[in-house]
Amino acid sequence: MIELTASDGGRFSAYRAEPAETPKGAVVVLQDVFGVTPEIRKVADAFAAKGYVAVAPSLFDRVKPGASLGHDEGGKAEGAAISAQIGKEQAISDIQATVDAVKAAGKVAVVGYCWGGDLAYVAANKVNGIACVIGYDGRETVADYREKRKVPTLLHFGEDDPELPLEAITQFRAWRPDVSAFTYPEAAQGFGCEERGSYREDAAGKARERTLFWISQYVEGQKPVLLKNAGAYAQAKTEKKKKKKGDDDLRPPID
Fold first, then answer.
1. Share of the chain residues as helix, strand and coil, in percent rounded to the nearest 5
2. Which of 113, 140, 221, 253 could form a disulfide with 118 if both were Cys (CB 3.0 to 4.6 A apart)?
3. Do 156 and 184 touch, CB atoms closer than 8 A?
4. Checking phi first, is residue 238 left (phi over 0); if not, alpha (psi -120 to 50) or beta?
5. Cα 115 from Cα 7, distance rounded (Å)
6. Alpha carbon distance 187, 191 (integer Å)
7. How far is CA 144 from CA 118, 121, 179, in A?
8. Rounded distance, CA 113 to CA 129, Å?
9. What is the third-level CATH fold of 2-232?
10. Distance CA 174, CA 108 (A)
11. How far is residue 236's CA from residue 180's CA, in Å, rounded to a whole number?
């Protein structure tokens, strides 16, 4: 664990994983409501194994330092209460400090899970110095559709989340064509977390593949293509290709 300092002077811890060779860039991993758990550390380690400096800030430290809660209803309720106390503004401040701490490694991606997924989506427009963001299971994200994203944004949702209707995700995609949003059949919140009962190996694998490709394009590759009146075009391509008549590559198909 390392210690970071935010702009207000507040200090918080973070788990940092280093790649074996020269970093390709950096990935900031945003926790879910269970804290910086062994699972979140495992995610950071996996990004480091792919060649990125990976840092997972302990965003609960302002209220409960070192929080690592159980993946059960009790842990979920406690985590939800802590996240409400922290608030988005404070969390974004700490995320900015984390990005600043790793930017020497190269371009920076932000990846968030559940609560962290919502924070990642907000970070796209609020945090300076990031190349792209990826969010998993962000329930509040689908209601935050008014602003265009300033950096390429990729989102993952389960189709069977009882608290997030598929219709709401479909409508969000219509409102935000500058965002790439994918859904996964028979998957609910936490489908990418091996420690939860909702884990779905197939869906998690597809989402992971898309996430790594997204990061490789925008952290290692060229800058995103900017389209008139569309903000940062959230495409996973490095070369501009001529569109065929009738094609719509602004919104990837739900699958």
1. 35, 20, 45
2. 140
3. yes
4. alpha
5. 22
6. 6
7. 9, 9, 12
8. 20
9. Rossmann fold (3.40.50)
10. 28
11. 9
Altogether, the residues listed in the chain come to a count of 255
State the 10-residue block means of pLDDT for the chain, 255 residues long.
94 97 97 95 97 98 94 93 96 98 97 96 97 95 92 95 90 95 89 79 92 96 53 42 38 44
Q: What is the spatial distance between Cα 33 and Cα 8, in angstroms, rounded to a whole number?
A: 23
pLDDT at 210: 96
Type of residue at 157: F
Task: Please tell me whether residue 233 adopts helix, strand or coil conformation.
Answer: coil
Q: Which three-class secondary structure state does DSSP give residue 217?
A: helix
End-to-end alpha carbon distance in the chain: 38
Residue 14 pairs in a beta bridge with 2, 57
Cβ atoms 129, 103 nearer than 8 A: yes
- Please name the amino acid found at residue 69: L
Query: In whole angstroms, what is the distance from residue 103 CA to residue 87 CA?
Result: 25
Q: What is the pLDDT of residue 197?
A: 73
Identify the CA nearest to 137 among candidates 196, 78, 94, 68: 196
Query: What 8-state DSSP symbol labels residue 98?
Result: H
* Predicted TM-score (pTM) of this structure: 0.85
- Identify the pLDDT of residue 195: 78
Amino acid at the residue 252: P
CA gap 136, 159 in Å, rounded: 12
Q: How far is CA 131 from CA 76, 78, 109, 123, 198, in A?
A: 31, 32, 6, 11, 30
Chain-centre distance for alpha carbon 219: 14
80-86 own/partner pairs: CB under 8 Å, 24+ apart = 80/33, 82/33, 83/33, 83/59, 83/115, 86/59, 86/60, 86/62
